[in-house]
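Subject: Predicted fold for Chymotrypsinogen 2, 71 residues

User T.R. writes:
Posting the sequence so we have a shared reference for the thread.
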Amino acid sequence: VVKLADEIDRYVNTSCIMSGWGYTNKSLWTEANRLQKAITMLISSTDCKKFWPQFADALDEELFLCVYNKK
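User M.O. replies:
I've generated the structure tokens; pasting them so everyone works from the same file.
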């Protein structure tokens, strides 16, 4: 758990480095057994809701960062 910056909007469209043990293959739901790192782009809440409409109602701008990898 991390505290988000108070002025999160000023970081939109900047690089974001994340780490964790999450899923590495969304079609097989394969979990990583080693710590993984991803470099992504922080996007606005508006864009986040466009990319992930199924989660739009659950997204709380004070609790979540939304990132997107254009690859």
